[in-house]
Amino acid sequence: MARPDKAAAVAELADEFRSSSAAVLTEYRGLTVKQLQELRRALGENASYAVVKNTLTKIAAKEAGVDSFDDLLVGPSAIAFVKGDPVEAAKSLRDFAKANSPLIIKGGVLDGKPLTPAEIAKIADLETREVLLAKLAGAMLASLQNAVSLFNAPLSQAARVVGALQAKAELDPSILAGGSGEPIPPETTAAVSDAPADTSAAEAPEAAADTSVAEAPEAAADTSVAKAPGARADGASEAPADTAPQTPVPETTEA
């Protein structure tokens, strides 16, 4: 490869490293052209799969700030440059390697951090971005539904109260006219009137009144007796006896 072509290849690889969120280094020894095409279709739009030269890739990786590939770039190498969801790309590579044993995952880099084959396998076991987004959307929808139910609870309670009042008004229209509702049944009134009352306080004034009335004539009688010592029992007073000396009437003789 001529020097200008090599420089262009290095620059292209360096741009791939910089523009990718992840990169997975594989060894494709033993894979046919058809199998490589199937792998590219399996990766889809999430990643591009390119066969690379080790020497040029080391130079490009260093220019892009990736140092973890230096010791891994041995043998026939191909790199999956991930532009989409790293989890989906890791799943595609893992599933293809299970079905096609010649494919070997040697390592990778994610957001500038090196990854071992075991770590890539753990990433492949994670849920994809679409699944996580679906779960997040479901959780948000459930939260919104809970919030709506909480907001609607007072309205439903008010509606039940209004319905109860409407039913009550249909049975007793006086409520709508400002009435107090159904009158107290006669049985309840009779029961209240027949109940024994506390008469101790009510009887005391009556007893005092009776005593005062009974004592009033006696007091009056005593007073009258005291003021009129010579009064008769029937109320008529006796005339006092004439105690003045009487002059004898002289006898006259006929001439």
Give average pLDDT, whole number: 72
Number of strands: 5
CATH fold-type name of the domain at 3-126: Alpha-Beta Plaits
Q: Which stretches are low in confidence, meaning pLDDT under 50 for 5 or more residues running?
A: 195-255
CATH class of the domain at 3-126: Alpha Beta
Spatial extent as radius of gyration: 62 Å
What about the largest sheet? 5 strands, antiparallel
- Percent range for β-strand residues: 5-15%
CATH superfamily of the domain at 3-126: Ribosomal protein L10, N-terminal RNA-binding domain
Helicity, as a percent range: 55-70%
Element order, helices and strands? Answer: HEHEHEHEEHHHH
Q: Going across the major beta sheet, what is the strand order?
A: 2-3-1-4-5
Whole-Å distance between the termini?
218 Å
CATH architectural category of the domain at 3-126: 2-Layer Sandwich
The number of helical segments is 8
Shape: rod-shaped
Structural class: alpha+beta
What do these coordinates show?
The protein has 255 residues and is α+β, with helices and mostly antiparallel strands. Among the domains are: 124 residues, Ribosomal protein L10, N-terminal RNA-binding domain (Alpha-Beta Plaits, 2-Layer Sandwich), CATH 3.30.70; 52 residues. The chain has eight helices and five strands; from the N terminus they run H-E-H-E-H-E-H-E-E-H-H-H-H. The protein has a five-stranded antiparallel sheet with strand order 2-3-1-4-5. A hairpin with a 2-residue loop joins strand 4 and strand 5. Helix 1 packs across helix 3 and helix 4 crosses helix 5. The longest helix has 43 residues. The C terminus is likely disordered.
